[in-house]
Amino acid sequence: GAVVSQHPSRVICKSGTSVKIECRSLDFQATTMFWYRQFPKQSLMLMATSNEGSKATYEQGVEKDKFLINHASLTLSTLTVTSAHPEDSSFYICSATVLGLRGHNEQFFGPGTRLTVL
Amino acid sequence: QQQVKQSPQSLIVQKGGISIINCAYENTAFDYFPWYQQFPGKGPALLIAIRPDVSEKKEGRFTISFNKSAKQFSLHIMDSQPGDSATYFCAASNRGSTLGRLYFGRGTQLTVWP
Fold first, then answer.
1. Which residues of A touch B (CB under 8 A)?
2. pLDDT per residue over A59-101, tens digit each?
3. CB contact under 8 A, B46 and A106
4. Of A8, A103, B10, B31, which one's alpha carbon is 20 to 30 angstroms from that of B54?
């Protein structure tokens, strides 16, 4: 159980185009979904926290107009990178939380999406 | 400001040896300490986690040691295998707030030589 999927797993696009990444919790309804960005050999950097039906909360320094997050349901969140540029090339990872058996939120991560902007 | 400090940045261990990764935190409100394993090109996967009411948790070859007074916790991998070669992240969260947001360490790249 507790499987999180991401689609696509890899995308290459031209500079100036927009790219949408989907994150789905396959066998559970997620309380909250998180979006991370990871550069090579670095840690995960939280971009935003997303709850179903409400606006995402963005971390300081993350442009909300560039990284649009839509949380359509308890099992689906999307991240759209608008007008992508080469510096947006990165590994994007989502996670979904569910209330664990012992009362704390457990986070399960998706497999990630490799974005390359040419 | 790094909420969770992790060391070493990289670690090379011989097959069969013990791998030890250390983490330290400052925020005493943290009450959940997971370790994640990440292979290249994949998302992190939960390896083992501990709560501060216990000092040690063991699952197979993986053990977390937790020192609440020192605000430190560590991951021990016994009988390390080449398949354990990956990046390991420690993390911490406060279940009572911020919807379970995780604060990650910088990661440790473990290489186990056969």
1. 4, 6, 31-32, 34, 41-44, 46, 49, 51, 91, 93, 95, 97, 102-112, 114
2. 999 999 999 999 888 899 999 999 999 999 999 999 998 776 5
3. yes
4. B10
